[in-house]
Amino acid sequence: MSITFATFAAYGAPALNDDVIEQLVFHTSSIRKSHGREASLTLLTDEVLADARALQLFDVVKRRPVIGATLLLDRARHYRAFLEDHNWASHIAFLDFDILVMKDIHPVFNGYADVYLTVRSWSKNMPFNGGVVFLQKDKPDLCRGFYNDVLSVYEHLEPEHLGWYGDQLSLMAAATTGGSQLSPDLIQTRSGALVGIVPRNDYNHTPYDVDVGKDVPSALDATDIAFFKERPVLHFKGPRKHLMTIMAKAAGL
Question: Which of 19, 146, 153, 252 lies deepest, with the highest CB count within 10 Å?
Fold first, then answer.
């Protein structure tokens, strides 16, 4: 069964800097290597990006207005618009481009849920990360309904949350407010969708995240590399971008 990978990248400029291009190359190469040519790659971007180095990496490019001050709100709008257009012949993975997909993620979709998220146990107010979201293909109306709820919450947040953190707050509200916890890994949401919790250590692994209690290193040793190669999804958020380059080269991307 194929998966459509949809990656959001928008900087409000026709061209991207070399560092961003490198991340996009590693990101898309990791998906091609782990999932083969049957995987479909879609770029979700703004209306001005014209950099062929980025556009040629993807099978499909979808454009919408994106404003820097409301970047993550516009990402959520992009996600919802994508769900309206999708043919639902494949599962969906919404991913940030600072991610390497090291192994097959099809096991995520073997559960009963409609939407799959990962949880950061150390963050009680914002446990869900909007940079990694998986959606099951079998019940498109429930997936759309869940993201309609996410966006409805997001668009009514205080202005200071419309840019950063708003995606996490709105995911938290849509997934947990007014719903019921059916099991430790399954939530019945108020929109009707079932949200499944998949292991963050596998499907949204952030090297040297705050719960590790260690500073982000300048390099990776052989033990790090061997461990990270076994994680299906690696997320190099924030000050970890240099580790993405090291890991991608170690993986032969």
Answer: 146
